[in-house]
Amino acid sequence: MTGRHSNEIDEQEPVTEPLVVRDRRKIDPETGQVRTQPEAAEAPAAEAPATQAGPSLGESIVDDAVAAPSEVEKELAERTADLQRLQAEFANYRKRVDRDREAVVSAAKASVVNELLPLLDDFERAEQHGDLTGAFKAVADKLVASLQRIGLEPFGAEGEPFDPSVHEAVQHNTSPEVSGPTVTTVLRRGYRFGERTLRAALVGVTDHEPGEAPVEGELPVEQLSDENAQQ
Predict the structure, then answer these.
(1) I need a labelling partner for 128 at 20 to 30 A (CA). Which of 49, 90, 102, 149 fits?
(2) DSSP string over 56-73
(3) Which residues fall in a compositionally biased region of kind Low complexity (predicted)?
């Protein structure tokens, strides 16, 4: 069996490709005429990439690759906006509550301090008469320091410009020594607590009085006095 298979392989002729010879001579060797050159075979043009034309009239320009937002995404966006709005409202509410709480606490403190103002007036009168001494003075000083520490502020002193919003004038004088309405007498001290005026100060006010101009041809009174003294 092996010998017969070998004989069959030997009897097969080898397969060879046919040899093709192309005569590219420009002059025919037999006729001596110039041969006409065959047109070169045009190489198949490479397929140019197709240019993407713009959308035609009535055609949608939405890219199909971009998917429209689903219902879940829309609902998520709505819930996120609602949450942000609630957070902003809660922040405003908390600020308003804190502001109202501070106002209530300040009003309560001012009410208590206002009830103690007559006591402070007694301390001040006792000090002016020299009766505020010893342990009584120590207690008064501690009370005044505590009230000032929580926000009580006295005002109304001699030499202050007159302010009708915080000063109540009960006396009025004129003098050339002041340039404008000035507090010259304090009958009762005023107090404010924070930005709230608890009590206006009772004061005496002195307004500016211009000096009399000398009559033409006459000397001022002071200058006449000096000349008489020299004589």
Answers:
(1) 149
(2) PTT---S-TTSPPPPHHH
(3) 38-50
